[in-house]
Design a protein that fits this description.
Nucleotidyltransferase, domain 5, six-stranded mixed β-sheet, Rossmann fold, alpha+beta, 5 domains, 31% helix, single chain
Length: 714
Amino acid sequence: MKRIAVDIGGTFTDCFVSWGEQFIQTKALTSHHNLALGFNDALDQACEILTIDRRQLLQSVDSVRYATTLGTNALIERKGPKVGVLITTGFESTIPISRGRGYCDGLSDEQARDMSRAKRPDPLVPISRIRSVKQRMDYRGKILMDLDEADVREKLKQLVDAGVQALVVTLINSVENPEHELRIQEIFEEEFPSSMLGAIPMVLSHQVVGRKGEYVRSSSAIVDAFLHSTMYFAMSALEQNLRENGYTRPMLLVHNSGGMAQLNSTDALKTLHSGPVAGIHAAGQLSLQGDIQNIVCGDMGGTSFDIGLITDGGTKHYDFNPVVDRWRVSLPMVHLVTLGAGGGSIASYDTIFNTVRVGPQSAGSDPGPACYDRGGMNPTVTDADLLLGYLDAENYAKGAIPLNTRRSYQALEDICDEMDISELDAALLIKSMADSEMAAGLVRELNGGGYKASEFVFLAYGGNGPLHACGIADKAGIKKILAPPYSSVFSACGGAGLDQMHIHEKNVSLGFYNKHTRALYSEYSAFNRLVESLEEKGRADLLRQGFREEDIQYSLELDMRYGIQKMEVSIELENRRLKKPQEVLAAIEYMNADFAKRYGSEIVSPESGVWVSTVRVVSRVDLGTVKFSDLRPPTERLSPPEPVTYRECYFNGNSGPIRTPIYGPDALSKGVEISGPAIVNPGETTYLVEPGWRYVAAAQGAVWFICENDTLEQ
């Protein structure tokens, strides 16, 4: 297997190269003005290790996979075109009302509870750029009112005259019958041909979302239109860069559903959070192959801290109506929570509580933390880590980024003056606050699923994950930490193991058990025709991308609920066709078991009716994955090697500096055990073993941190 996977983050661009049995991990600062520059820098580092040139590498690999936060960042920063919307007459307020919950979507629990301060975000589409058109479909897709084409032409001209740069068409019940949305697109092409300069992209809501839910469908289409141009030009530039360097195969983009597809088969919406999702996919593979159960993922990069759950031997959790920034959308997305806490998170003085606040603002890669000596003036978590002795100023990022300690001291002066403390005390406080915020995020996520922190392994990865893992786990009550193989670029590693995948779904209302008639669902032919139509869409997508029909695999999922419940669970049917009542009963029993496990057996109530709200077909082609060894802590232990050097390090809970041994790559040898405090710096990342923790090296370069009052038993 020869392939390249890239995770373009807000601060660093991570590169993972699979070259037969050899795996290379490299990092470079993200070049936001031209993403190709950071990619080329990271790729050149891999080429130097392989002793080949860039062109030779790109001509030899089977694929290049990109995961990026570009769309996420553009949405957060509101960098997008002026979007206009056409909607059915009478529904003009659907978008601004946002189901009455827009004031709290995307806010923390604390912020959402403070209703006096919670407010809706500035809209992506203000009311002045929403126009209604005369038409109407019923819930079955029957036309109740024909499309008034003259009205459509007038409304289109009004929006174009208002200066819109992207258009969204979102008509009521268009997922049942898209005829009117498609006709509006034809009219728009007649009035404003795409061959003309200044052409405006048009997004049809039924093509973005296949489920009902007028607000989330409209919101999804708006976000997609808002990001379309940004993603198109950035990804096209990356693809052009590949072509100039000899790469001839299609460029692949990671999707937030946990799969990937070619550029011409990707909506902008599907790329949001794709980097962290790739990391969670790798965690799922690690759980299965490495025999590690119940994992809470923590991806700490330079800009954010992303949390996900893996339970029951590799099971990922999905959101089907996730909140992206401040907007609820409708698409299958691997469940994750993002916190504004990373190595580049800016620390500031909190005047209300007389303490330090960390994040969510980040110094990013330009100018970066103050210690990068690139003009950054704000103190960050990385500056604190440097002053506390955890980082080697001369060999940070393998020496590519020399750190300036003096700049870190200067950046902390304002906080020190406000609080009347020393720079070292301020640095300890910054680290403590950052660790506390991330630990609180882990605990909220675990508690929300009904889990206990002590029963989970904390999978710490990203450039700063192993550095802060012990501090986070201490505060979260977690006793075991695993820094996985290739931890510094673990999300990129996950991208290297993804399948080519497409998801197609249809919103339905099928009574698998009707409590009034006491009858099971029996319209097998209609159900099977629906499944076949969704399979055909997935098959067409993959055939268009050059795959053989015999290589395509399908799975069928149903979103199910009880008649008196709003909560839904997604189940996978072993047989993709219904032929007899026993198969309907099997689906209901599977749903009962899943409900009981998630929410408690007391709310299992099939007697109230069982309904299917969504039919979903996943079409995929297995392209192979990175293999993980048995990563459990080894039984045979080795004494630590001789330290490379010693440094004075500071830790919370200790009155003064501790002379701390610094170990090199030899400490990654399987079985090496080190009691904290200690630092292991093999070059790719920094492993900080805090007091009260033990370091145990496992297979494949993985590292365990074990709390001293806990055992290594799995």
